[in-house]
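cron nightly-structures :: item 1 of 1
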Amino acid sequence: MQQCQFRLVVWFFLSAMTMAGMGAPVIGYADVVALDARTVADSPEDFARRLYSYDMAVDAANDVHIVASKPRASKPDEVVYIRRTGGIWRSEVSLSIDGLRSSISTRIAVDNAGDVHVCYIKSSDRNLYYRKIVDGVPRPESQVAQGAWHTLMQLDSAGRPMFLRESETWPAQVSKLALLTTTNGTRWSSRLLDLPSVPRFRLAEFRYESGRYHLAFGDSKYRRQVLLGKGSSSRKTGIFHGLYYASSTDGRAWSTSLIDNSATLYEDEFWTTLALDGAMPIVGLYRYAEIGDQYNTGTSALIANREAGQWRKIIVQDRGYEETREGASLAVIVDRPGHWLGIWDYSPDNTFNAYFRGERGNLALARSGPGRDWREKIQLQSFSAEGRVVVQQHPSQRLHLLVLGDFVDAKLYYREFDMTRIEREFDRVFAKFPWNNFLPAIIRATQGR
């Protein structure tokens, strides 16, 4: 009887607030309205064949450039290029029908002249290839280096492609990272980076900005028993990483620091991010957990920024709900100096949060806030993030998103948002009344928890 009375009081209270114009969001959830939305590709549901390798760049004119390795049945991937120019989506261009299925190294960048640079690994010889695209027309591909090592691409100050790759010495087979640069776009020189020795490097992030190289990497240092997958009761020995950051002004002498050694960055759920606020690096990682003996449950995100030579770290998690799933696929961008945005998956079985009630999961958008505690978050899209979140912000206050989404029916989705509208949505939810402070407790109480 008391429970029924409580529910009635809660219903009356929330209804009154809603009618007063103070609490409309509490009665449900809503995606942030997109200016442009497109399904780039449908993905197979089988994890071994999902569309995990994709990337996006946005040029000065706010034109969008996408590259993706599309799985094909019993064949190598097809690497395709898709672009939107002048607000119109153009026909898909096939770059190769020989893409390596297991690769996540299909990458894209656009230079100041608007020319597009793409790299991918081919299946037939398992080597890295590069090609330039001018006005939508691909130039001939060229081989950059041998080996199917995981690779990230950036453009140097002259707009030339350079590559950071996982590698190893020969014949000793000591794990290393290698930087490949070029002066003409057809021939590359390679050098191994002078970094602290680790059991095996796992390349996480690579950025080049204002004449400085920035990278993050894992060390493959830890081992522990983990479940084989969702719903499984069997276990295997999983590899876990400490996460490091390194920077250099010339690509030769590197300054390295340890960000996190909690041994929660799991090899099979390896989600990281790197952003730059001026000279300040911001690095994030996904903290894997198995609360209640359930795969990928009780997870969180760790976001760290380096100030005065020290890493300031915060763990982002719904601490009132032990079985949460939050932080996978995370991406952080700098909206403006001192103001950061984060996007990540937030898809537990029950969020106990009226703002996040997507039947196919939730993609959360959070802002760092004055205290950089990441407490303010809104639902960006009502589907889960199943792959890497790629996000780009244009000076015209446009936010571009590319992500493999939806655990029910995986697809590669593109979205464009108006940052002004996003800020209004944050203010609408958080400025008038602190719903998030008590709403989860109300929901738990009404559900008998």
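cron nightly-structures :: done
Residues 2-19 form the longest helix (18 residues).
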